[in-house]
Amino acid sequence: MKKISVYILVMISLSCTNINNNNIKTINNMAYQQGTFGYDLEFLKKFQEVIVLQDSTGNSQVIISPALQGRVMTSTAAGLNGSSFGWINYKFFNEKKTVSHFNPYGGEERFWLGPEGGQYSIFFKQGDKFVFDNWNVPKEIDNEPFQVVSKSQTSAKFEREMHLVNYSGTKFDLKVTREIKLLSKSDIEKILGLPISDEIKSVGFETNNTICNIGKENWTKDKGLLSIWILSMLTPSPTTTVVVPYKESVNPGKIVNDDYFGKIPENRLKIANGKIYYKADGKQRGKIGLTPLRAKPFIGSYDAENKVLTIANFSLPEQAGEYVNSKWEIHKNPYSGDAVNSYNDGPVDNGTQMGPFYEIESSSPVKELKSGESLIHTHRTFHFKGDMKLLNELSLKLLETPVDSILKVF
What we know:
By secondary structure, this protein is an alpha+beta fold. Helices cover 13% and strands 31% of the residues. It has a single domain, classed as Beta-galactosidase, Chain A, domain 5 (Distorted Sandwich).
């Protein structure tokens, strides 16, 4: 009887999404090919309850995990049989274990808080050396749930109270609110200020993230402040390149911070004509960052193998604010950090590797919050897939360089 029920459910799912049954292959008793959105949806449902947002066509969809801080696990622009854009750590899910330092479930867009390092870090305990053995992601932003406040077909809202202590002993009582909205095609066109051809498959979603000081004490710079930190874990290919437009007019100062995990070699990082190009193939660990003086509110990537253009757009004040410094050391200036980052995964010293994946990240500036005051940060993610000529036009307008040029960098 159980087998009959599963068969009926699969048939209903297929009939509702107009999938050609001849193309279906069962892998580990799942009805979709690995790499598709349908595969990831069925995989995740084995471990936890999820929320799926979708448009009226069923083409644009995202999967959200309330159990993992309202994390967007992945998205698609072509329904259940379409490509799944987020990186999911299948091995870690299957092991069903909890790790003290960090639980790397993956996910296309997750909520974190900064700073990571320094005298105001919330990842290290007071007096500890800044080494990996002492580094621990607060459980509230690692493996604990957010409460579902509301949900609809195209949006979901989450909340969570947190009580954190930084390296200097400052206590933070805060409430996090996270609202996720699946964007329609007209929403995407309005936000980006350009038309999207019907020949391009697209998906976009927006997260509005708020932290509110619910404690009695005001937050002050001399005791440490918090920033909102959004990280997108994406699936790389050998031909994925991250592109970061930057302000050339800023002078002096280095253009890009590229020494987070050792200097990035020249064959993986290029700077030309107001753009930074970073090879994001998941094969060599490294990270880049731009200060708020250099940053623009866009960063993106192009995967030439799968012909996918990814764009991230985030809130960035016109007047450069102060950002937390997350390097693992005591800082002379703890508010001289980066506004936008990209991380490329790769083997660590012992040869092991978590991914492969790559990340696109944005952060909010800090703000001294009085009791009852809030800080908000918005991050939007878009994926476009289709004709190269049309992708060229989108990339030129949003990343200031066509995909044809991106292909020639590495």
